[in-house]
Known about the structure:
- The structure holds two protein chains of two kinds.
- Chain A is 0% helix and 51% strand.
- Chain A is mainly beta.
- In chain A, strands 1, 3, 4, 8, 9 and 10 form a six-stranded mixed sheet that branches. A four-stranded antiparallel sheet of chain A has the order 2-7-6-5, with no helix packed on it.
- By secondary structure, chain B is an all-beta fold.
- In chain B, the strands form two sheets. In chain B, strands 2, 4, 5, 6, 9, 10 and 11 form a seven-stranded mixed sheet that branches.
Amino acid sequence: xxxxxxxxxxxxxxxxxxxxxxxxxxxxxxxxxxxxxxxxxxxxxxxxxxxxxxxxxxxxxxxxxxxxxxxxxxxxxxxxxxxxxxxxxxxxxxxxxxxxxxxxxxxx
Amino acid sequence: xxxxxxxxxxxxxxxxxxxxxxxxxxxxxxxxxxxxxxxxxxxxxxxxxxxxxxxxxxxxxxxxxxxxxxxxxxxxxxxxxxxxxxxxxxxxxxxxxxxxxxxxxxxxxxxxxx
Lengths: 108, 114
């Protein structure tokens, strides 16, 4: 099973950008890179996904390394509501393998 | 638009019993996946159903089973419950599955085994 490695926790100040890294050195050519986040007492919420090119949506940006062995989720201006556990996941067909995630703390 | 609904939200059982959890996907979604979340193992994929057929399966023992009905609602069954089955069980739905489609998660059923 493809695996991802993320820092256990990160801290950010409100209104500042946040870069959440993820390593996935065993990624296969057909694995998509997905990011989900989970707020306390809730199920995970979709953030963004991509295959090879960088992606942007209203929530975040996803930067994918040229060799696809790592990626970075970018929150352009962190808010208190962005405090959550962020999961970097490799998805192939409909099997998603969640790593342990990064707990993001946002300071006011 | 209603989200994914899981019932019940909380459940307490004893070892050896069996349990059935229910998931109603978002209207129009035909793929339903189940996950187990524990503090030690994190989120682990159980299985995925599409059009009433199990299409993908994770690495869980046969005590964990599921099914999907013609209206896409899904149930998950765990037989001969063990203490280690205590977890948050999450259901997620998507239009047709596949890596291109976001999964929409419910808030889970918290199962406690005494």
